[in-house]
Amino acid sequence: MASELQFALRRLRRSPAFTITAVAGLALALGAAVSLFTIVDAVLLRLPYPEPERLVSVRNRVEGLSPTPWGVSQAQYFDYEQHAASLERIGVYVTNDFAFADSEGAATGIRLA
User: Fold this and answer.
1) Rounded mean pLDDT for each run of 10 residues along the chain, 113 residues in total
2) Residues 22 and 67 grouped into a single domain
3) CB-count exposure of residue 112 (10 Å: 0-12, 13-18, 19+)
4) pTM above threshold 0.70
């Protein structure tokens, strides 16, 4: 591997225009990727809460009945609200699944929260 690296460095020294173009292209691509990630992180990935790392999601799962968890019932919500000392505040959200079909009958699923 060392001999391959030496060969690559020798080739790059022989053609400085190509080397500068390749390094500049890599630098621009890396800068664009970092900028894009920064924008996506700030706009889409950050939750609009003061301390998002403290948020939790409470779900139910019954072994042997369902492999996927589902939400809590209204009675469980009120029970958590009254008795869960470890939760500072509690809230609820609802998700719904919808299926839409275009004019040709192709279905598209969408989940709304």
Assistant:
1) 88 89 95 94 81 82 73 84 86 74 69 58
2) no
3) exposed
4) no
